[in-house]
Amino acid sequence: MSSSSRAVSPVIANILLVAVVVILAGIVSTFALGFIDGTNQPGPIVGQSSGDLMTQDGFDGGIVRINHVSGDTMRVSDMEIVVDASSACNKRSRIVNLPADSGQRITDSNYDGDDIFDQRFGSLPDGSALLSQEYSAGDVIVFRLDGECPLDSGDTVTVRVVHTPTNSVPIKITLTAT
């Protein structure tokens, strides 16, 4: 009788050990699947956009306008604007840390890359979505390129609006200077 009662203890211990492993596996998989599910969310979709690149009279830079015609609303704090002006001046940069909190201008803290943005007051005209909280249908992103990036008629600038949480590009547009 004593030999049969000794066998019960290891069996119960093994059952408890398996139960603990199953519970831990369930907790870890729930956390891992929940984390992965959150990172695979699709980015916003902008169904239609348009833009303009205009040279400025008496100034070598240009004015960039990107119109959000239709599609999802994006939080401006979740955006970066990638500007490739290699056709015009062989420079590239990104507008970051949005919305711009220094009034109506881009400062050193708002760009990463080459210094191609006009940093004077008013370089972000009234109504530029880069000064607001959201970018939705009907809104316009407006900023100025500085004189270090001279534009001639026919030069192109490619602008990408990047949704940083999903690393997606809902707007990519190549503009030709007029």
What does this structure look like?
This protein has 2 domains: 1-40; 46-176, Immunoglobulin-like. It has a 5-stranded antiparallel β-sheet. A 3-stranded antiparallel β-sheet has the order 1-2-8, with no helix packed on it. Strands 3-7 form a two-stranded antiparallel ribbon. The chain is α+β, with helices and mostly antiparallel strands and 178 residues long. Helix content is 24%, strand content 35%. The chain has 2 helices and 10 strands, in the order αββββαββββββ. The chain has helices at 2-39, 86-89, and strands at residues 46-56, 59-71, 74-75, 79-84, 92-95, 111-113, 134-135, 140-144, 156-163, 168-176.
Features:
178 residues; 5-stranded antiparallel beta sheet; 35% strand; single chain; 2 domains; 2 helices; alpha+beta; Immunoglobulin-like; 3-stranded antiparallel beta sheet
General shape = elongated
Low-confidence stretches: none
How many strand elements? 10
CATH fold description of the largest domain: Immunoglobulin-like
Helix content: 10-25%
Q: Indicate the CATH class of the largest domain.
A: Mainly Beta
Strand fraction equals 35-45%
Q: Strand-and-helix sequence, N→C?
A: HEEEEHEEEEEE
Count of separate structural domains? 2
Which second-level CATH architecture of the largest domain applies?
Sandwich
User: Average pLDDT value?
Assistant: 84
